[in-house]
């Protein structure tokens, strides 16, 4: 009896789907807090966050609240501010399957720009492989995706509660599965994307049409997890 390739795919996705639909678990193991300012980046190990005193982040029961300026830098070569939890080790999609989840609440929207809910990207200012942004009431996936329109692909919605429960799974061949507030989508990364060293990150970050007047975005994370298969080589920085 022949076995359908779709059955194999469904079986592989079953643990991912079950985990994604479970109650959020905030597990920052393997992550560090990165606070990017226009001309500096500070890194805080998650193990020390309980004793930290910083207006950009503070622990809450079962999670952490992150804030960042949502103001476009006016100086040349300045970075866009962001406060986020980022993986502390680089990895490549082609090495092994990986799965991530984050549950968050948008506490304060900026007056302009689009909030980044999560992304896979290089550990620098280069363009991300994948970026999930809030566009109105939609969650849009943009990045290095085969046959995707320039403005991205809608993969879910945000309702009046301003909560997002996101799960993301990558396969070594570039297949990507997302689950955003119960909506599942499957896409494929470009061949170029598979070999780029990346990290998963989520937090307070605004992009696109940002104003130049003082503004703030605030996010509370109540779920965070990351799982990697066995990789063939270390990408520790």
Instruction: Describe the global form.
Output: globular
Helix count equals 1
Low-confidence stretches: 1-11, 230-237
Ends apart, CA distance between termini:
48 Å
Radius of gyration: 17 Å
Number of strands: 15
Describe the structure.
It is a single chain. The longest helix is centred in the first third of the chain and has 17 residues. The chain is mostly beta strands and about 240 residues long. The strands form 2 sheets. The chain has an 8-stranded antiparallel beta sheet with strand order 2-1-5-14-7-8-9-10, with no helix packed on it. A 7-stranded antiparallel beta sheet has the order 3-4-15-6-11-12-13, with helices on one face. About 5% of the residues lie in helices and about 45% in strands. The N terminus and C terminus are likely disordered. The radius of gyration is 17 Å and the shape is globular. A hairpin with a 2-residue loop joins strand 3 and strand 4. About 40% of the residues are buried.
Summary tags:
disordered C terminus, mainly beta, seven-stranded antiparallel beta sheet, eight-stranded antiparallel beta sheet, 7% helix, single chain, 1 helix, globular, 237 residues
Short description:
With 237 residues, the chain is mostly beta strands.
Write the SSE topology.
Layout: H1 5-21, E1 31-37, E2 40-45, E3 57-60, E4 63-69, E5 82-87, E6 98-108, E7 114-121, E8 130-135, E9 138-143, E10 153-157, E11 163-170, E12 175-180, E13 183-188, E14 199-207, E15 216-228
Antiparallel strand pairs: 1-2, 1-5, 3-4, 4-15, 5-14, 6-11, 6-15, 7-8, 7-14, 8-9, 9-10, 11-12, 12-13
